[in-house]
Specification:
The protein is of the alpha+beta class. Helices cover about 45% and strands about 15% of the residues.
Length: about 400
């Protein structure tokens, strides 16, 4: 209670017993890569790690004149054991329950020594799993399948809010349970505003303003205070039971329960107009007169057939040459496509253990196309495969190396 009453949020507390070297270097590098993709020409991209972390609010100079991480920097970029030294009850746990014969079918928790255990990596490790089963109606935009919906954005906001508003000095950790019908998010600490204000939207009072800022700099979370408001609005439009928001005390805890069974996002559905359908039908179905004329044109004389045969033989070599030129041109366009390469790198940063097939599905491209770009990125030293093909993960490097 006393911590929440302070004007200065607790995540700004400087930890003079720690240095930047105590943070997870890979997490910092992944964040900087995402920041660079989001803000390509930003002046901060050229800064050293120490100064960059100070700029985003993750570190500050202490009384000794040296740069130290603050609580936000530790929670965002630290390793689990190091975080636990400062925050003994710190814990992150994501659990999926899809069968009744096991306690969980999938789990990601901060105490697992295979990854850092900080909130930045936790967010990107689970976000795709959290939204994976939201049913999306088929829609196209510019000829590509659209799988990103307002529902996905609202769930991302709900997860970000749990990490942003959690009381990391509280007595419990952040626990997220997902079943085929319900997602439940529990985080330590109660609202700093009323539940009605939180659902109504427009009011933002972050418990951890530095963490809020670091997420927003890579386009995660908003400062408008519309997270729960958007979530409730989308569920209301879909005719599904509204998310349930509760507070529990001793220990303080906020619980958000979201029903997802049979939820289908119908927002922004793209349906051809009746005029377009009529026009399309007229173009596809020829008239009987056109069919008759076409039949006469299709049946050439024997002399025309002979001439056509000679012309076809002469032009076949030109067609083959043209096909080879088109294939070469297409390949060159793919190799020079920086946008595709950046999208692949972005996806790998968000989900390091993703497969080429899954990337292809996200980009609405063939697996062969994506595999070719992955090969080029590896040869350029921009990405690296760590571990085996089956159980390893992708690492996006800051700079290409020979």
């Amino acid at each position: 209670m006393l911590r929440d009453q302070s004007d200065a949020t607790v995540d700004g507390k400087i930890l003079e017993n720690l240095f930047i070297s105590d943070l997870n270097a890979d997490s910092i590098q992944r964040y900087r890569n995402m920041f660079r993709l989001s803000k390509i020409n930003h002046i901060w991209n050229a800064l050293s790690d120490e100064i960059f972390l100070m700029k985003i609010g993750a570190a500050k100079k202490g009384s000794d004149g040296k740069v130290h991480p603050n609580v936000a920097g530790l929670v965002f970029f630290g390793d689990f054991v190091t975080i636990m030294d400062e925050l003994p009850n710190y814990f992150l746990d994501y659990r999926e329950h899809f069968t009744s014969d096991t306690r969980w079918t999938d789990r990601v928790c901060s105490s697992d020594s295979t990854w850092s255990g900080n909130i930045f990596d936790f967010y990107f490790r689970i976000i795709n799993r959290l939204t994976a089963d939201i049913k999306v109606p088929f829609r196209l935009k510019n000829g590509l399948r659209v799988d990103e919906t307002e529902t996905h954005k609202a769930l991302r906001e709900a997860l970000a809010n749990a990490l942003i508003h959690a009381d990391y000095y509280g007595r419990r950790g952040i626990v997220i349970d997902k079943t085929p019908s319900v997602i439940t998010i529990r985080n330590p600490g109660v609202f700093r505003i009323s539940i009605a204000e939180a659902i109504g939207g427009g009011v933002s009072d972050a418990r951890n303003s530095h963490i809020f800022n670091m997420f927003s700099l890579i386009d995660v979370g908003e400062r408008s205070g519309t997270g729960l408001c958007n979530l409730c609005g989308i569920w209301n439009e879909a005719g599904v039971s509204l998310p349930k928001v509760e507070e529990a005390f001793d220990p303080d805890q906020t619980i958000v329960t979201i029903e997802v069974e049979d939820f289908v996002d119908s927002s922004e559905e793209i349906v051809p107009s009746s005029e377009e359908n009529a026009s399309s039908s007229e173009e596809i179905v020829p008239s009987s007169e056109e069919i008759a004329v076409s039949s006469e044109e299709i049946a050439p004389s024997s002399e025309e057939n002979a001439m056509s045969s000679e012309e076809n033989e002469n032009s076949s070599e030109e067609i083959i040459a043209s096909s080879e030129e088109n294939a070469n041109s297409s390949e060159e366009n793919e190799i020079s496509s920086e946008e595709i390469n950046e999208k692949i790198e972005q996806i790998m940063m968000e989900t390091p253990n993703i497969t080429a097939k899954m990337i292809a599905e996200k980009l609405s491209r063939s697996s062969r196309y994506v595999e070719k770009h992955i090969k080029l990125l590896r040869e350029a030293g921009k990405i690296q495969r760590v571990g085996s093909t089956k159980s390893g993960y992708w690492k996006v490097l800051e700079k290409g190396s020979e």
